[in-house]
Target: Cell shape-determining protein MreC
Amino acid sequence: MNLLFGRTISLQLRLTVAVVLSVLLIFGDRYTQGGTLFRTSLHTLVSPLLYFANVPYEMFDIGAKSLHTRDQLRQENYTLKEKQLLQSEQLQQLAFLKNENQELRALLGASARQNNTRLIAQVLSVHSNPYSHQVVINRGTIDGVTESQAVIDEMGVVGQLTQVGTTTSRVLLMTDITHATPVRILRNDVRTVIEGIGKINRLKLSHVPHSLDVRIGDVLVTSGLGGIFPEGYPVAVVTNINRDEGLPFAKVYAEPIAQLDRIRLLVILGKSAQETLSHD
Model:
């Protein structure tokens, strides 16, 4: 029996069949619900494998923690106490600012914003190449998460949820070439958009006029536009500016504040968090 891709079939016919099948799959995935259901089913099927692949790391992590000496634990305890004291001072300031903010809102007649809802997630695997920066986490539809929810870590913005399965989901990192984040410059509140360029430690500001007031060292935070990321979360720091007048726009690059190559635990912001300014 002659197979479709047997030796009797010409290379040109093989290529034609492959291209036609690829086009049909692309259109089927784009314009039908079958593609989404198929991806969700695949996520459900491979979820046990992802958890199983994560077992060696967990065992190694437990073993490494058991090797800590008493002096190391004492030093860590001292460091944590110092950090707690600093955070307590910051919480006092936040309480004052929160009260002041409420008074200003009362004067303006503005409605109170909703509180953040958060969900902790763990990274199970990393899928990173020049064309796709994504990680798989251990949260899915059974945890109440949905696509496009914002994801952060303890330092700043990481990305947003995509391809949500039953027990696992993919997080599209903000350094992915398809991802764009509305931001503002913390120093002067100028709004712009930052895009991924396929490099885990570099981002690019899009369409920056030569006259835009941006400087090296400027901190970029989420602007709240677009309805995905709440306002005020740290995103990146400007590291390089090229104002070549021969080009229509200045080239401005920034470095993510979150260490995307080391993320382990993430925070998924709930839908109600999309309308808040503070971290509570």
